[in-house]
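Hey,
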Amino acid sequence: MNCFSTLSRIVAALIIGASCANVASAAVPNNVSGIIPFAGTSSFSGTLTYQGLVRNYIAIRPTKSTLTGPAPAVFLLHPRDTANLAMANISLAGRLSANYGAWVFLPAAYSGQWHDDPSPTGSQSTLPDDVGFLSALMDVAVAQDGVDAHRIYVAGYSNGGYMSQRLGCELTSKVAGIAVISAALPRSLNSSCRPTLALPVVLMAGTNDIAVPYNGNSTLDSAVQTAQFWLSNNRCIGAPTTTNYAQVSGDSTTVSLSRYTACTAGSEVRVYTIQGGGHTWPGSALTAILGPVTKAIDATLELWSALSPYHLQ
């Protein structure tokens, strides 16, 4: 079973008839067709030319906010061979704008795949420089949209989760925290990742993930090894505090959280283990064909709760 192809077919159904058009200007201030709407928000599609390539993104912003000063932003990175519009709906991303006054940016990977592998000779070596592209888009968000440069968070699902870790490795001067959903640390990234700062990290992994094996494989660290990497990077010591979430009726999964807070100042690591969980976005109803989706937690709200208290110094 090709899990990525299956996922692409699922999310394609979410965007039939939707228009995420390529536009010539930097931003089009009208709502993007197909995004699940939330009161108090608006969305627009935009482009950014980087290295001669016209790259697309969607932004969701609050129309009314009680925040004073610049707004925080969450960059949500979609899985391989899917779409940023689908990512908006899988995660119900508009809630972050509606309820917390955050901007949400949903960039699109070139040809559907993020360049998460830093190896200069690997299979991804011909892909565009996504670290540079996403860094440039963060600059646009700060300069053009008034986003707080000290509160930019990155979360990714599957291939997007690999990419969020690469940004945590290479853009610690810009990224205030990362969340990794249904993804592990690629071994090629483990061998080269040398973050210059500690940063808060959220990890969510299902034990029955059919695409990213919980116990790892020849190219991916296991979920435990991935957690250990970030614990070591953040110099976390001691035992975590553990929370077991109540099981939801009719839900075959159970969720436990190990929270490590005795880490370098300004960082922590939260590890969500989803017993029986599949290659899914927790709390979403849109990815069940890729395995059980836990209803015990909502990934979007959990990652916001974990990361939003932190900011770059």
